[in-house]
Design goal:
- Helices cover about 70% and strands about 0% of the residues.
- The protein is built from five helices and no strands.
- The longest helix has 15 residues.
- It is globular and about 35 Å long.
- The relative contact order is 0.20.
Length: about 80
């Protein structure tokens, strides 16, 4: 049985995919979501995990439901198992 942990790299990759799909830079997304660009960069690299508040602000800035992002993260985690 695999360790029950949320892989921050997967979280960051999914967020980055949504950002790229929207066609915006980290700089723009960080401004729209009121998150520091270095913090967003660390999230996308998997060095930090976003809090629910941060994920909510990112999802609003991307115009995507937070639950949609979470489902995408779960699907990617399942795919990698």
């Amino acid at each position: 049985m695999s360790e029950m942990r949320l892989d921050p790299k997967v979280v960051g990759e999914v967020i980055a995919q949504y950002r790229l799909k929207k066609g915006i830079t980290q700089e723009v997304l960080s401004g729209l979501s009121d998150i520091g660009r270095t913090h967003l960069s660390a999230i996308e690299r998997g060095e930090r995990k976003p809090t629910l508040e941060t994920l909510y602000r990112i999802s609003l800035a991307l115009d995507v439901r937070m639950s949609t992002i979470v489902i995408s993260i779960e699907q990617e985690l399942d795919r990698r198992r």
